[in-house]
Write a structure and sequence with these properties.
Blueprint (H helix, E strand, L loop, with lengths): L17 E2 H9 L1 H9 L9 H18 L6 E2 L7 H13 L5 E9 L2 E12 L5 E9 L7 H16 L4 E9 L12 H4 E5 L1 H8 L2 H12 L22 H5 L14 H9 L16 H8 L3 E2 L3 H5 L6 E10 L13 E11 L5 E7 L7 H12 L5 E3 L3 H12 L4 H9 L1 E3 H8 E2 L9 H8 L13 H13 L4 H35 L3
The structure holds iron/sulfur cluster.
Length: about 500
């Protein structure tokens, strides 16, 4: 059955050419591939955080090339296919080139660009084939990487080259940057996947043929959105495919996706249809009941805080390529904090800090924070994240460890308090600070801010500090970052106040 909401049929004169990424889309979902090929405008554009991940991947890819000195880049861009193919042939024929970056191959209707093709020589210096290396900014091998290399191998072998081995090059999070230049042999791990890829490659021709037949249909395949839409990647057509789903669609049930799978197999389509005897977690149960709930203990739990109550939030960046001494790839580095300080009288004061240059932010940030938090009062946070950041700062700076450890002892996490003592139907099962805030204090949303979520804050910080930006843009980003972090801590103040009112209304 074809969904009514799907786009109009289109005449399809011939099989479209596929790329490696389209093949991988097709493995995730044929409908995704169909929409990418025939109706790409229906995709949701990547958000700033996703775009920043792509940018970081590009930076990692470029750095990875330094591991192959003398290698040559196929300069023709992704839309200049004929030029890229011609440049690749020329570099293959030039025996002085030890490695080719972004080599282009076309075979069986599939076009690929290979991150690295390294020329392999025999013991007496004769070329005997190539090593194909895919570079990823991820920290471990995933199944999709094997699929990725399988389709590339199929195309390269089909184009007539000999592949001696196939490998994945990824970031090694065990690498600790000490000083001087980055040690590329430590930063990148290279793992031989020849055997696994060969097995998977055998399936590529049949899979491609099936995809090509599907692409010749005049309508997208009737595939219902499900768990597969988020694995291995979040599908950009999720909004399109789910736009007509009911507000209480079963896939909006939080928690174990296994429960959702079992329920959908039983024909359950909305949360309200879940049978009464279904085993649900406490959170799932509250979502199903869909009524406001206040625990009898909420008031006493809230009253356990000590004034002045600080409300603390960090923003961090995670750099794939470490820049500061004694840091590892993707280590969370705090660059900003905000603190709203509430006295017992209700008087509120705000302090904050933002590190604005390329130097190591951690020590100066930790010192300014210690000054702001002083020696007294509970420190309200909204996740275990702040604790982990404080502990990593304490490990990095032994002289600050005693003071930071005392700070850790004063932390008071609002998240489990809300999770265990209050529920509002408007949470929709999500206890993220944004969901909770928009349900309990709708006047204090994030809509008016230029930065609305943490991933965007991290990517904007990266641009401000590590990518060249003019001073006007820098000033704008600074202002947006400060406003965002400030909103997070003000949100905690207002949530505590709203919860106190709920407890009072319950008679505590
Ligand atoms: S949202 Fe799901 S069903 Fe729709 S195209 Fe994407 S993967 Fe397929």
């Amino acid at each position: 059955m074809t969904e009514l909401s799907d786009p109009s049929p289109v005449p399809l004169p011939q099989t479209p050419r596929l790329s490696k990424s389209k093949f991988l889309s097709g493995l995730q979902c044929h409908k995704r591939l169909y929409l990418e090929v025939h109706h790409p405008s229906l995709a949701t554009k990547p958000d700033a955080a996703t775009q920043a991940m792509f940018d970081m991947g590009t930076e990692v890819g470029e750095l990875a090339r330094s591991r192959f000195p003398g290698g040559a880049l196929v300069a023709a861009g992704y839309r200049q296919t004929e030029a890229a193919l011609a440049q690749t042939v020329a570099l293959i024929q030039d025996l002085t080139v030890p490695a080719i970056f972004e080599a282009a191959f076309l075979h069986g209707g599939v076009l690929i660009r290979a991150d690295v093709l390294e020329r392999i020589l025999t013991a007496d210096g004769q070329p005997c084939g190539w090593r194909l290396i895919e570079v990823k900014s991820s920290t471990k091998i995933k199944d999709v990487h094997v699929e990725d290399l399988a389709v590339q191998s199929e195309v390269i072998l089909g184009a007539g080259l000999t592949l001696v081995s196939v490998s994945l090059m990824h970031i090694n999070t065990g690498y600790l940057y000490r000083e001087g230049a980055i040690d590329l042999t430590e930063l990148f791990a290279i793992q031989d996947l020849s055997e696994a890829v060969a097995k998977r490659r055998a399936e590529v021709p049949e899979r491609l043929a099936t995809m090509n037949r599907m692409l010749l249909q005049t309508q997208p395949p009737a595939i219902e959105p499900d768990q597969h839409c988020h694995t291995p990647f979040d599908c950009p057509f999720w909004e399109h495919c789910t736009k007509d789903k009911p507000a209480r669609w079963i896939h909006y049930l939080p928690g174990s996706k296994q429960v959702v799978s079992q329920l959908t197999q039983q024909g359950v389509t909305t949360i309200d249809e879940i049978p009464a005897d279904t085993k649900l977690s406490p959170v799932q149960r509250r979502v199903k009941e869909n009524i406001e709930w206040v625990s009898a203990k909420l008031g006493s739990v809230l009253n356990a805080v000590q004034y002045p109550v600080h409300h603390l939030d960090f923003e961090t960046v995670m750099l794939a390529v470490p820049r500061f001494l004694e840091t590892r790839p993707y280590q969370a580095l705090p660059v900003q904090w905000s603190n709203h300080i509430e006295q017992a009288t209700g008087e509120l004061r705000h302090e904050d800090f933002l590190h604005k240059d390329m130097s190591d932010p951690r020590k100066v940030l930790a010192e300014s924070l210690l000054e702001s938090l002083g020696d007294w009062g509970s420190i309200c946070v909204y996740s275990p994240y702040e604790r982990s950041i404080l502990e990593s700062l304490a490990d990095a700076f032994p002289s600050l460890k005693p003071a930071l450890s005392r700070i850790v002892g004063r932390l008071w996490d609002l998240f489990p308090i809300i999770r265990d003592h209050y529920y509002h139907p408007a949470f929709g099962g999500s206890y993220s600070i944004k969901s909770v805030l928009s349900a309990m204090v709708p006047s204090l949303a994030y809509d008016d801010l230029a930065i609305k979520e943490g991933g965007h804050a991290a990517s904007q910080y990266y641009r401000m500090v590590f990518v060249e930006t003019d001073w006007v843009e820098r000033a704008k980003i600074q202002e947006a970052l400060l406003a965002y972090c400030k909103r997070d801590t003000l949100a905690m103040v207002e949530l505590r106040r709203a919860l106190k009112e709920k407890a009072q209304m319950k008679g505590e």
